[in-house]
Amino acid sequence: MSSNAKERMLKRAAADIVPGMTVNLGIGLPTEVLQHVEPGVPVCLHSENGIAGVGPVLSPDKADRNLIDAGGAYVSAIPGTAFFDSAVSFAIVRSGRLDLSLLGAFEVAANGDLANWKIPGKFSPGMGGAIELAQKARRVGVIMMHTDRKGNPKILDRCTLPLTARGHVNRIYTDMAVFDITAEGLQLREIALGSDLTELRAATGAPFHVPDQDLPRF
Amino acid sequence: MSSNAKERMLKRAAADIVPGMTVNLGIGLPTEVLQHVEPGVPVCLHSENGIAGVGPVLSPDKADRNLIDAGGAYVSAIPGTAFFDSAVSFAIVRSGRLDLSLLGAFEVAANGDLANWKIPGKFSPGMGGAIELAQKARRVGVIMMHTDRKGNPKILDRCTLPLTARGHVNRIYTDMAVFDITAEGLQLREIALGSDLTELRAATGAPFHVPDQDLPRF
Amino acid sequence: MTLPDKRGTIEEAISAIGDGASVMLGGFGVPGTPFCLIRELVRQGPRNLTVIKNDANEAGMGVDWLLENGQVARLVTSHIGLNPTAIRMMNEGAIEVEFVPQGILAERIRIAGAGMMGFVTDIGLGTPIEEGKPRIAVDGRTGLLETALRADFALIHADSADSFGNLSFSASARNFNPLMAMAARKTIVEAERMVPLGALLPEHVHLSGTFIDIVVELPELPEVYGVIQR
Amino acid sequence: MTLPDKRGTIEEAISAIGDGASVMLGGFGVPGTPFCLIRELVRQGPRNLTVIKNDANEAGMGVDWLLENGQVARLVTSHIGLNPTAIRMMNEGAIEVEFVPQGILAERIRIAGAGMMGFVTDIGLGTPIEEGKPRIAVDGRTGLLETALRADFALIHADSADSFGNLSFSASARNFNPLMAMAARKTIVEAERMVPLGALLPEHVHLSGTFIDIVVELPELPEVYGVIQR
After folding, report:
1. What is the gyration radius of the CA atoms in chain C, in angstroms?
2. Taking CA atoms, which of A177, B62, C156, D228 is between 20 and 30 Å from C26?
3. C148 to chain B: which residues are within 8 Å by CB?
4. A136 touches chain C (CB under 8 A)
5. Does A33 reach chain D within 8 Å, measured CB to CB?
6. What is the tens place of the pLDDT at every residue in B143-161?
7. How far is C78 from chain A (nearest CA, A)?
8. What single string gives the DSSP state of each residue in D139-202?
9. In whole angstroms, how large is the CA radius of gyration of chain B?
10. Which of B99, B103, B114, B117 is nearest to B173 (CA)?
């Protein structure tokens, strides 16, 4: 994947972060989306370890040793930041106050199932806060490379790995396309510049609906 | 009852409030016990509406409109007072952090049952916080006149009114005597100056054990 | 980065509350009771309300206004002993009253605000409080199932608020306010003081604005907020 | 009126922890981890501990000291991805690890601290998280029963404390600390600063001293509390 395609994917996801939202960005690609949100957009970033209104990341020499985000990055406060305990932090999540949770994934299924915390026998560091973020945000977006390092599809008909949450993913952003998951199944919404349908079908492990109209490009 | 006997009852109950305790005092007689606690004794008074370290009652002209205790009295802060919400306040109660809860009663039974919140058809304003105080303090004391206004016993073999809590009262202070409730039943511990056993038996609706030794007077 | 602005007018905020709504009201006695929001609720007049509040205030204030105006169908509360109107209307069957032990009321609201369904406690086991509640075994002990208590709206009184809805409360005026703010579909705050974003230290915020929908600044406080002279 | 004094020494405080004890450790990453209390726990050396902590810190700090010293039999946690020792010992069967979703871990601890037995949530329904948990119906919906998580001891890191044990926490160092302080039979606090009674405003106290048993003042902070240079 060209870094160009990655940048366009991040930018496309950032466009769905609109004024007024409270948003949680997972570690990795989701966090990178932030750099592409327009500076003037009023949004509240939530971090599981007890912050609403997360500010920009600081270099170690400017860091506050007591202020990290859930990924361990030294972040800052902005006017209006609030700190609270971990129970309140997940009260925000479970009570539906997150307008959007953006997560990474090992696998996403056409039915909205998500697997992103465990590869039996290989990787099981624990689920952290992923399960509640994936199950309870009002909208759940997955942002990931379209295929794994070996080129295998990560969008599948059914997940093969242990699930993080069942049927809660609303939208998938990849370097090749944007899909929505609806009651009628996986819907192709947009396609990346430089990708085509044939290529996309080959790289996707589940059938998807293609609209009759021209597909927006990103 | 002479006000003298009432004062001695209050003083006797106050003697059981010892250094280091966190204590909740119910409305009415229990609150009056406070005036008889030695000034130097380090204790923490808890109020259900969200205060630990309740300070002295203030006159209306000195009152803070936002600082009342659970009985509606305008109270004050002392060095070390903390305010919290009602869920935390009852977390203190239910998790066993109250060393002592002193409550009033309509009826107490020889088995430790307490009835103090409802007289069906006559008085049912709601239970407030009484149920949790009576069930979860490490020690539960009842302080009350020995008989009702008509001279009927309030200490009974079994309560006739709806229960506040089942089997949690440890000690009863009245103007006539101090009783403990143990696995072996109701135990007379002390008797008021000017009361005698015959009188006490007539005024008590349950049999009680009398120790072989001389009874302390209060 | 900047945070969303949630300031609104009291008329607009309360106009969302229609007939039959469930409404949580903060406060324990006078402290923390959102009198101005309640007064606007009386002025706009939706009926058949379910009101959830620790107590029914006293005659001539707060919940009493709603009762006297015939807007309350049901009251969920821990104690109404200081309000003769509430007791009379309960005895006459003019309102339905559900009594909940105070800490259980607080916790049912908090559990809703924390996005859970219910909790298990041994409070009330073997007393009339048990009636109608399923018994649940937890690690070999028996408890009662208490259900989460949500509402359509929460009306909250805060000491200070910023435009994002971060709140701080004064002294014992905190009580049910932060819990109810978390447990409603829509939460409306009246604040004695609006302060600039950042004026509340992040460590001193009692409730994060993430739980708040509309913040209304109070004009000069009416007398009802003052010390009661008995 | 004056409040009880709970100051003590670190040696005496930790000496109460014996073999087989369950110990909650505050902290999320470095912030809020009670490194000095943990170091004393390593020095005194009780074994076969059940450790409850959000994460296992990183190599060479905090929980890792206890793991390397062979004192941990069981770890209840939400994530150990930053600690290779923990992952290796888990894979080798040298320690037993129970993974709990982070918010469920927080809530199981809080429910214990609030003196309740368990709660019902739909988190994890239909996923492997459900295994072994009874299904409970609440108002016609299905949830899972989660049990209260208590411990014999909680080791807590605070920014400021007074002699009664009223605490305040700094920034994201609050995390699990106040919850764990409520959920243990005995709670020991290390504080960066002891302040006089009354120096913490009653509204600014994050956790009331009613939950605290012993307060230990820290000497100059060791480097492990500092910013991690990567």
Report:
1. 18
2. B62
3. none
4. yes
5. no
6. 999 999 999 999 999 999 9
7. 24
8. TTEEEEEEE---EEEEEEEEEEE-TT--EE--GGG-TTHHHHHHHEEEEEEEEEEE--TTSS-T
9. 17
10. B103
Partnered with residue D49 across adjacent β-strands are: D72
The domain that holds A168 is classified in CATH as 3.40.1080.10
Instruction: Give CA–CA dist A192/B99, Å, rounded.
Output: 67
Residue B87 lies in a domain: no
Helices (H), chain D: 10-15, 35-44, 63-68, 84-92, 102-113, 177-183
**What pLDDT is stored for residue D1 in this prediction?**
80
**Mean pLDDT of all residues in chain D?**
97
Amino acid at C109: I
**Does residue C93 belong to the interface with chain B, where contact is any CB pair within 8 Å?**
no
The count of structural domains within chain B is: 1
Q: How far apart are CA B72 and CA A18, in angstroms?
A: 47
Question: What confidence tier does A164 reach under pLDDT thresholds 50, 70, 90?
Answer: very high
Q: Is the pLDDT of residue A210 over 90?
A: yes
Of C3, C114, C205, the CB nearest to A42: C3
Domain that holds residue A170: 3-36+99-203
Residue of D nearest to A82 (CA): D171
* Strand A177-182 versus strand A185-191 pairing type: antiparallel
The tally of domains found in chain C comes to 1
Report chain C residues whose CB lies below 8 A from the CB of A21.
Answer: 4
The single-letter code of the amino acid at B1 is M
User: Per residue in A169-206, is it b (16+ CB within 10 Å) or e — as a string?
Assistant: bbbbbbbbbbbbbeeeebbbbbbbeebeeeebeebbbb
3-state secondary structure chain A: CCHHHHHHHHHHHHCCCCCCCEEEECCCHHHHHHHHCCCCCECEEEECCCEEEECCCCCHHHCCCCCECCCCCECCEEEEEEECCHHHHHHHHHCCCCCEEEECCCEEECCCCEECCCECCCECCCCCCHHHHHHHCCCEEEECCCECCCCCECEECCCCCCCCECCCCCEEECCCEEEEEECCEEEEEEECCCCCHHHHHHCCECCCECCCCCCCEC
For chain D, state the CA radius of gyration.
Answer: 18
Residue B44 inside a domain? The answer is no
Catalytic annotation, residues of A: 48
Using CA atoms, how far apart are residues B117 and B139, in angstroms rounded to an integer?
Answer: 19
- From the CA of A144, how many Å to the nearest CA of chain C? 25
The pLDDT of residue A1 is above 60: no
Is B115 at the interface with chain C, CB within 8 A?
Answer: no
Q: Is D219 helix (H, G, I), strand (E, B) or coil?
A: coil
**C-chain residue closest to A53, CA distance:** C3
The C-alpha atoms of residue A37 and residue A45 are separated, in whole angstroms, by 12
Specify if A145 maps to a domain: yes
Q: What is the CATH number of the domain that holds D76?
A: 3.40.1080.10
CB contact under 8 A, A91 and C113: yes
User: What does the DSSP 8-state code read for residue B157?
Assistant: S
Q: Give residue-wise pLDDT tens across range B25-77.
A: 999 999 999 999 998 899 999 999 999 999 999 999 999 999 999 999 999 99
